[in-house]
Structures are given as structure tokens and as C-alpha cells.
Amino acid sequence: MRYQITLQAPERHTHFYFDGSRQALAELIDTLENADVRLQLSTQTPNFIEHLPLLLALEEENCAALDHSHLGPLLVWDRKDLAAIREVAYAHGALCVLPPNMVPPALLQALANAQALISSSKTQIQGPAVHTRRRYRKGEQVRLAEDRVVQVVRGIVRCTSVHPDGSEVLIGFYGEKDILMPHHAHTCYVEMTAHTSLLVEVESWSTAATSPEFYSRLKERICQMESWSSMQARASIESRLLGIIQVLSHKFGIPHPRGTLLEIKLTHDLLASAIGANRTTVTRIIGNLKRQGDIAVEKTQQHGELILLPGYQLHRH
Questions:
Q1: Other beta carbons less than 10 A from residue 300's beta carbon
Q2: In the chain, which stretches have pLDDT less than 70?
Q3: Is the CATH number 2.60.120.10 carried by domain 128-216?
């Protein structure tokens, strides 16, 4: 039996099909009821076909179940964690394979990726423009199809990886002139969120690659990622935190009479997720860094309290 499911979240509604055993359906409902979503369920006759994502729950390698007449993206829930299921699923064009211990953030992100592909396909049928500009409110997620590239015109984007166990890790901030791409990994999902109000240009890969500045910006993006990763790999939590702040200063720092001021709002929760610590630990470390004179706090009218690196000079190319 195929079911049409509607998830009613605070910000948006998500529609998709579910196909699987009664036990799998019961587990799905139980998982989603523990999240901040409401679920509506209805059955559909076999000849009812619509461009919606299909979540197919498999407990064994079943090629027959994958040979479906479905027009939308396919998501597979590998309920037994079998390599054979993953192999067959991807061979049949699955967008992603979710693990047995699926958590709501992973499912919601996978459905968002699938919906982005559907929207992109509709746009392509209508004949897309060379590029489009989009605005996002603070806190709104930036969702892209796989063949799209975002170039930030104004504002800041926050990137966070969401793992199957529900844990989140801050992996970077990006601002003006940075380029961003969707990340549809099989082991985690990278969310792009508007950290501030945001204006971006969305282009296809083929269009973006014709820009003379594209490859230099791509190189800069890789260098930013490597710098961030190297700071996260430092031995002590204190050196990781200070290193992340210094990396951010190269992108978002401005000269200040006492050093370099970071024009980006950083909460203790965000810093904790970047260095693999809890909020209490970050608060304690920031207190130590202040006493040592490594960082200070500057009150501003526009952004409130911002981090200051005393005596730290910017060296931008």
C-alpha cells in the first residue's frame, strides 16, 4: 500500500509518498511524532501518479520494489543496513539512502533536496533565465538542485552538517562573492542557512563556470574550507576555538583601533558546534581567553556584542 504523507512543520509543509511494510510505517510515524512536525496520512490508489518524492522502506534487496512507475525523486530507507540494498538503490537512481536509525533532521533535509530537484525540473521545462536573484530572511534555509551554484551578493550564509544521529557541526560561514554548492552526501546532510538577511544569485554550473572569476572564487572557497578544517584538528579545545575565530576574522574582520573586529554575530552554541564542545565549555574558554587578552568583546549599535581580537592585524591579498 502506498501512502501520501504531509508533514506540517512550523515553517513549511512537505508532501511525499511512503511505500513499505506496516511495521516500517509505524516506526516512521513514531520517529516523526518525536519531532516538531505534525503528520497527516492518506492512502492512494496504484494508478495515482504525481511528481512527489517517494520514500521506499526496504528490509531486503528487492529489485521488484525499486522498479516502480514513479515520476518523482526516489529516497530509500535501508532498514537493515545492508550494503546490497544501498548498491541496488543507487543503481536504480535513488537520490539518497537513509540509515536504519533515521532521525527527523536527516529525512527532512533529504525531502528538501528532493523538492529542490522537482522545482528545478519545472523551471527547466519553462526555460530558465541565465541566472536568478533570490532573497532569504534570516534563519531561512537555502535549498538548491544539484546542478545549481549560489554566489552570495549580500549577507552571510551559515553551513552546518547534520549527521544521521541528529548531531550538528558548524562547518563554516560564507559572505560576499563566495560561491556555494549543494551537498547531497550519503552519510550527512549539509544545510545552508541565511545567518543574516541574504541576497544571492543562483546559476547553473555551466553558466557560472563561464565567469572569469569563477575558478578563483572556487579556489578561495577550498582554501577557506582547509583553513577551517585545520583549526578543528588542533589538539586543545582552547586553541581550536581561538583558531576558528581567527579564520573568521580574515573573511568578516574589519580594522579596529585595538585590533580586528569580527562583524558577525557568534553565539556560544554556534562556537560549540564548530569545535565539538558544549556551550558551558565554550563559555568557560571564552572567559579564559578574555582574561589572557586573546579576545575582547566590543559593544556595537548595529550587531550588539561582537568579538574583538586585540592587536590582531589583517593580512588580506
A1: 11
A2: 1, 9-12, 43-50, 61-71, 119-131, 164-166, 183-188, 314-317
A3: yes
In the chain, what are the domain boundaries? Answer: 2-124, 128-216, 234-317
Find cell 552519510 and name the residue: 187
Q: Are 147 and 119 in contact (CB under 8 A)?
A: no
- In Å, the largest CA–CA distance within the chain is 70
Class of the 2-124 domain?
A: alpha beta
pTM above 0.70, yes or no: no
Residue pair 19/56 in contact by the 8 Å Cβ criterion: yes
Structural contact between residues 198 and 142, judged by C-beta atoms closer than 8 angstroms: yes
Q: CA 179, CA 164: separation in Å to the nearest integer?
A: 26
For the 234-317 domain, the top CATH level (class) is mainly alpha
Surface-to-core class of residue 256, CB atoms within 10 Å of its CB (0-12 exposed, 13-18 middle, 19+ buried): middle
What does each C-alpha distance from 61 to 11, 87, 208, 229 come to in angstroms? 36, 9, 40, 37
| Burial class of residue 192, CB neighbours in 10 A (0-12, 13-18, 19+) | buried
Helix 104-126 vs helix 22-33: crossing angle, to nearest 10 = 100
| Helical spans, DSSP H, in the chain | 22-33, 63-66, 83-91, 104-126, 205-208, 214-232, 237-252, 268-275, 279-292
| Burial environment of residue 140 by CB neighbours within 10 A (0 to 12, 13 to 18, 19 or more) | middle
* pLDDT, tens digit, 9 for 90 and up, residues 192-206: 899 999 999 888 888
